[in-house]
Amino acid sequence: MSKSLIVLGSQWGDEGKGKITNYYSERADVVVRYQGGNNAGHTIVFNHQTYKLRSIPSGVFNPKIKNILGHGMVINPKSVITEINSLKELGFECHNIYISDRAHVLFDYHIEIDKLNEEALKEKKIGTTKNGIGPAYYDKVARVGIRMCDFVSSDFKEIYRFTLEKKNIQIKEMGGTPIDFESSYQEYQKVADTLRPFVCDTIDLLKQERKAGKKILFEGAQGALLDVDFGSYPYVTSSNPSSGGALCGSGIGMNHIEEAIGIVKAYTTRVGSGAFPTEFEDETSHYIREKAHEYGTVTKRPRRIGWLDLVALNYSATINGLTGIFLTLIDILSGLKEIKVCTSYQLNGKEITTIPAKDSDFACCVPQFKTLPGWEEDLSHVTCFDELPENAKKYIEFIENYVGIDVIGFSVGADKNQTVIRKEVF
Ligand code: IMP
Questions:
Q1: How far apart are the CA of 16 and the centre of ligand 1, in A?
Q2: 40 touches ligand 1 (CB under 6 Å)
Q3: Structural domains of the chain in order of their starting residue, each with its CATH number
Q4: Are 244 and 62 in contact (CB under 8 A)?
Q5: Which side of the chain, N or C, has fewer Cβ within a 10 Å radius?
Q6: What is the structure's pLDDT at 160?
Q7: Please, what is the Cα angle at 149 between 145 and 153, to 5 degrees?
């Protein structure tokens, strides 16, 4: 059994990570978010209640689990406080949250600039969640960001004044409304006072936990195909949801990562713009969208629907070094006569099994499908692989054979109990 596990989305996000991460977080001593921010919306069903976590790791419900918001994240402090307050109202004390002092703070001006950027891009817009994620990472890379250690320090006022002045010039130039320094500073000062007790050196904390032999779970947000380096650029998020992000965004060394499990939806969805070769829109996609309620957790946008893309999954397996696949939402496919899976693309008359770098080339890829027979049976009560209908078994085996990685578990419903584990890894 491994001591360190990365659980990440292998597609374009919304693979049902919340539920699977929750399964593993119950076996962890430490849960770490290493990238992204409150653009994530991890839905967790706990004690028959549904929770939607945005920035806080999914181990928060268990007071014994330490939950780290790693420095690879961009943290909206107001949103974290809202999350903490709503968790407290539900009876969770939240004493088990640790925020990296190196994490960048996401301010209101980032949100304003995100909206203005999107408006300026018109039909070329990224389709962001408008939470300010891109502008916050932009500042980090441009070395003009404000980190948690600055935010909770006595010189925050001067740092904020200096930065906001420049941001307001940008906001005005873009046609937006500048942010008032005095009132926003007063508000942020209170927020900083509330969060100060949570802020610490999480790199050292992680080291101590690892040395003490604790089990550490790294919880990816979004998905590998939205990765700023590996995804369908520019229609990506601004962080590294892929497994490499867990190293850069938390401070764990590569020799301390043992397993990387990719969450894979049994079909594919995407929100926002960008190429999506296996996308289709007909009565079957409508059936899938309504049955699985494929609408954004954060933005409520209807998700685009496509068949499972094994070329993309293979790519994801490579860049993440996946050691196992966890298949979700296979129950949704019950009732379909036929199920398609993409095994290659045709691009400019050539068959390819890789993803082209250029999004416009990716958009021109014509998926080559293998059509597999579907099944009628409801899967919601399935408790082991052998109970699956033959065609569902064949579907899983087809994926395993193509990617060369075991499907170590699958999920047949939203409830915690509707999870079938074929191999324990953590
Ligand atoms: P941003 O992360 O808000 O900048 O959005 C960039 C792209 O990532 C857009 O296509 C979003 O729809 C997508 N995205 C961001 N967060 C998520 C998520 O949690 N699930 C799925 N897509 C996401």
A1: 15
A2: yes
A3: 4-100+201-259 (3.40.440.10), 104-195 (1.10.300.10), 264-421 (3.90.170.10)
A4: no
A5: N
A6: 98
A7: 110
